[in-house]
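Hi there,

I know you've been waiting on this one. I reran it after we fixed the sequence typo, so this is the corrected version. Both the input and the resulting structure follow.
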Amino acid sequence: MKPFNILWIQSGGCGGCSISVLNAELPDFFSSLKHNNINLLWHPSFSEACGQDFLALLEKIESGQLLLDAFCLEGSVMMGPQGSGRFHLLSGTRRPMFDVIKSLTEKARHTLAIGSCAAFGGITMSGPNPGEATGLQFEGQIAGGLLESSWLDTSRLPVINIAGCPVHPNWVIETLSQLAQGEINPAQLDSFNRPRSYTKHLVHHGCPRNEYYEFKASAKRPTDLGCMMENRGCLGTQARADCNIRLWNGEGSCLRGGFTCINCTAPEFEEPGHCFTETPKIAGIPIGLPTDMPKAWFVALSSLAKAATPKRLKVNSESDHIRISPGMHEEET
């Protein structure tokens, strides 16, 4: 059986997604590739080959001498200045990197955007965007980036956006494995072409602060243990990802580390229009309500929940450590 050849290129980004992938455990990234008969032709950080060796490899792919099954782009596409691409040239050549990227999407059987920068533009597109950064097939929420919105690979798939900042290592490994086995079709991608294998969940699912959320026992300060949705800007009830189910490094997530969810798998998360640690409100009601929750229901349920909040949760939610432990039934009588 022929190996599934992949090529990984980094463009306008920090390299954080590659670092995240290296943190994959049980199995590690390279063991997963080997197990699924995936051949990593080249990666700018993982491979020994460089300079002329890489250019020779690129020539083989572009000339059709070497089959490329999947092209992985990490980082946004840099189009500036004025669409010339000269802010980011391929080292050793005078070719704009976006020209190389587009050529590889035409040769590869599948194209994957690794991380939110490659998918939607991400952090590198924020602010005035002097580098004219964009995603592969999306510019923020707008369909169409370097590639047209109608672009499809030879198997009729769009760019597969494995979004996240950084991306979870298992999302990458799982998607590549499914592609190698021919097990991905358009129905398995959501409206932003992200794999449903992780976007069918909310970050809220499995959150260690869920008991506080249920009673609307909210944190007010960064160190408080309570739910961070009402006051601290947490978007876990809206963010599509399974971070608290499929933990990072076996035990971690942003929320487990005491940080709010900033919805980094979504387009334009990088510019929410307010501080990441603040919850915008109108008449005391958070603007960003949980997915599928009507505003009137939230207000009614919130009032009832707060009225029924046990003393233990009320005290602990505004503390930096557990002050009251759960009591036994016999202790309550």
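Quick highlight: The first helix runs from residue 16 to 22.

Best,
R. S.
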